[in-house]
Design brief:
The chain is an alpha/beta fold and 370 residues long. It contains nine helices and 17 strands. Helix 8 crosses helix 9. It starts with 18 loop residues before the first helix and ends with a strand. It binds S-adenosylmethionine.
Length: 370
């Protein structure tokens, strides 16, 4: 990836030795990190080496009467002004200068401090413009014109205000093995940033479950990114997630893909475990008859903070665990608990975040003695 901000911008660190060298370094770091738990080969899944991000957040920096995109500086205070970004997909890259100029021409830059882009792989884009001021009718008219001219959706956000110009979601298409899935991605909700690596993660994780007449339990399901492709491998799926907008999107995505054997429940993992243990009762569980489920497999994809002891101990009761992690450090803490009862049979590294030290890891665990 050629980036003219190499060595300055804090968003990524371009390696002089190139993408492969950096990926290999990440692999070696993680082989050593996980060696106490797994000595086999870690499968590696690469990213495109540029234009791989389908969402990105920029600051808007004001200099005299002008504005620019900006990112934090890599190793000192202050920002780097950005006029192009080779990380973002081609559609966002092409839109960035056009949008900036439309904002200036239409004079809607007053107290604008951020622009977040979310794009599908076919170029549908929703842009969130973040303001330190209330957005009035004049702003709405101008934003409407820009949205029409640039063929995008715009969300204006300020304190306690969300103005939707067009719609607040895009529809993404994912190809997993020979299947095609459609997903509604809602602005400001979690979505995987790197769609081509996401497809490889879903395919890898799905292959770790054998086809069965049993049911699957999924924790941290988001908008059903894994749930929907997994559903055909199981009789039924029970999937939980804390975010209301993600659960609503997950339900819509189930219908969009003509899948009918999933029950989505909006609950934190901790609440869900309490409900199953009978510690607390929840109205949100009233339509779920847990006795109807035969669960031997669990899939988890927690946030960066990991699962923690309570949820890991709960997950340990199931024979098959597939864990996708966006933070190897908290994964290590969780494996410390899970590997007391389970052995790791497979591990994968997904280069979801090229040119950063971050990686996404996949782990398959099977109960000891099975
Ligand atoms: C890494 S994302 C994965 C989402 C989904 N699996 C995907 O691939 O898009 C983690 C998800 O966990 C949810 N989450 C965070 N803390 C949670 C908790 N305590 N209980 C349940 N869900 C939680 C977040 O809202 C987010 O959707």
């Amino acid at each position: 990836m050629d980036c003219k901000y190499f060595g300055e911008c804090g968003a990524c660190r371009v390696y002089e030795n190139g993408y492969e060298a950096q990926l290999n370094e990440k692999l070696q770091i993680n082989k050593e990190r996980f060696a106490p738990y797994f000595s086999g080969d870690i499968s590696v899944y690469k990213s495109l080496d540029e234009h791989y991000r389908a969402r990105s957040e920029f600051k808007i920096w004001h200099i005299d009467d002008d504005i620019s995109y900006a990112m934090n500086h890599i190793d000192k205070k202050g920002v780097v002004l950005i006029d192009e970004c080779p990380q973002v997909n081609e559609y966002i890259a092409a839109l960035m200068p056009q949008l900036l100029s439309a904002i200036k021409v239409n004079d809607i830059d007053f107290k604008l401090f951020g622009a977040d882009f979310l794009s599908s792989s076919s170029g549908e884009i929703v842009v969130s413009l973040l303001y330190h001021r209330a957005l009035d009718v004049v702003w709405q008219e101008k934003a409407k014109k820009i949205a029409q001219d640039l063929n995008i959706y715009i969300i204006g956000r300020s304190r306690k205000q969300k103005v939707i110009i067009g719609q607040d979601y895009i529809t993404e298409t994912l190809h997993v093995n020979n299947d095609v899935y459609k997903f509604k991605y809602i602005e400001n909700s979690f979505t995987q940033p790197n769609p081509r690596v996401n497809e490889q993660m879903i395919a890898w994780a799905a292959a770790k479950f054998s086809d069965t007449q049993d049911d699957l339990l999924e924790l941290y399901c988001g908008a059903g990114n894994f749930t929907i492709p997994f559903a055909k491998k199981f009789n039924k799926v029970l999937a939980t997630e804390i975010s209301k907008s993600s659960i609503n999107a997950a339900k819509a995505n189930m219908h969009l893909n003509d899948v009918h054997n999933i029950e989505f429940v909006r609950m934190s993992v901790e609440e869900f475990v309490d409900a199953l243990e009978g510690v607390r009762e929840f109205r949100r569980m009233k339509d779920i008859d847990i006795k109807n489920y035969t669960i031997n497999s669990i899939f988890v994809d927690p946030p960066r903070s990991g699962m923690g002891e309570y949820s890991c101990k709960f997950a340990s009761r199931y024979n098959h665990i597939v864990y996708i992690s966006c933070n190897p450090q908290t994964l290590l803490d969780d494996l410390d608990i899970l590997c007391k009862t389970h052995d790791i049979t497979d591990m994968a590294l997904f280069d979801q975040f090229p040119y950063t030290h971050h990686v996404e890891m996949g782990v398959k665990l099977i109960k000891k003695g099975l």
